[in-house]
Amino acid sequence: MKASMSSIPVARPALGEQEAEALRRVIQSGWVTQGPEVAAFESEFAAFVGAAHACAVSNCTTALHLALKAVGVTAGDEVITVSHSFIATANAIRYCDALPVFIDIEADGYNIDPNLIEAAITPRTRAILCVHQLGMPCDLRAIVEIGKRHSIPVVEDAACAIGSEILWDGQWEKIGKPHGDIACFSFHPRKVVTTGDGGMLTTSSPEFDRKFRLWRQHGMSVTDATRHGSKQVIFEDYDELGYNYRMTDLQAAIGREQLRRLPGLVQERRQLAEAYREQLSSIGLSLPTEPRWARSNWQSFCVGLPPGMDQRAVMQMLLDQGISTRRGIMNIHLEKAYGSQDSHRAATRLSRSVSAQERTIILPLFSRMTDVELLRVVEALRQHFAAVMSEDYPLVIS
Ligand SMILES: *Cc1c(COP(=O)(O)O)cnc(C)c1O
């Protein structure tokens, strides 16, 4: 352990003075919960991704819940998704008393394998919930076509994918336009833009958008802005069950600043990912690649270790040098919360998902990461690989 070296985190939120100033503005305005800042954030977000409607909520998990409810997922339905994702993906399905039906990921990436979807469809399938894992767009073109063919709605878990792009009819479009029926975003600090916690739903459907706005605010018939602006006394009604899934104006003000900086943040991350790809090209790791039709925001840079290399040992070696990493994405079906028969169904073998969790690690990548920091990560990995490989094949390392 070299105590003199500063440590390198795996991620770091890109928050600064502008966000602090924005908070001051809201605090002094006297309106701190869902209000004008949320409305402004929504229209700016919609414009950024090219969506007709954007509705802000408390986080991406609540966004997923509302999205699934809007497309009609109810008790006893099935939703096709991946196990290889953050647990919130499948939890949102269970909040609807529906059953997550897991299929495996692609051989050459960490996203849902569209070739496995059709065989998993049953008369009870009510939605496909695809994930743009680690910010890398999944094969939406294929997924949306399957959805259309079977009249099954497609919901995108775009928690990690703000600023990512997909080639659509010859044009680069933002994830969240949306290309499925609804897309859901997260503003957790581990994502590319953050509001502390927060989420957003985008859709082309005015009817879905109306429902999101109703449900996020207890099912209340009158909006905050309407009541506040009215010269008459208004009494509200509650015609159906709603939730408190609101975003606050404090969060939205931060989000607006983050959104302004997003193009720069994504460009910076793409440069860091490119630098990793160049520097790590020859040491024997499997590196993430973009399909021809996708541009990732590189929310995470996930590398695969060669078969037989000890994942924990690599992570410990890096940690001993002050470098934080994380294990690759989890597998939901392996958690105790999914241990019972009625918690999920696996419609295919999940062997690629399991192998990805066992063999991948997420390397540090964050705003203002320096070349020196990136090279420290690369050098530590290079030396470890050289040492491990030389145990098997004596090599002269120059
Ligand atoms: C982070 C994440 C979520 C949950 O987002 P929250 O805003 O924390 O609720 C859901 N799905 C995926 C794939 C995620 O990475």
TrEMBL record:
Pathway: Bacterial outer membrane biogenesis; LPS O-antigen biosynthesis. Its cofactor is pyridoxal 5'-phosphate. The modification N6-(pyridoxal phosphate)lysine is found at K191. It catalyses: GDP-alpha-D-perosamine + 2-oxoglutarate = GDP-4-dehydro-alpha-D-rhamnose + L-glutamate. It is an enzyme of class 2 (transferase). GO terms for biological process: polysaccharide biosynthetic process. InterPro entries: DegT/StrS_aminotransferase, PyrdxlP-dep_Trfase, PyrdxlP-dep_Trfase_major, PyrdxlP-dep_Trfase_small. Keywords: Aminotransferase, Pyridoxal phosphate, Transferase. Its EC number is 2.6.1.102. GO terms for molecular function: GDP-4-dehydro-6-deoxy-D-mannose-4-aminotransferase activity; pyridoxal phosphate binding. This is GDP-perosamine synthase. The lineage of its organism: Bacteria, Pseudomonadati, Pseudomonadota, Alphaproteobacteria, Hyphomicrobiales.
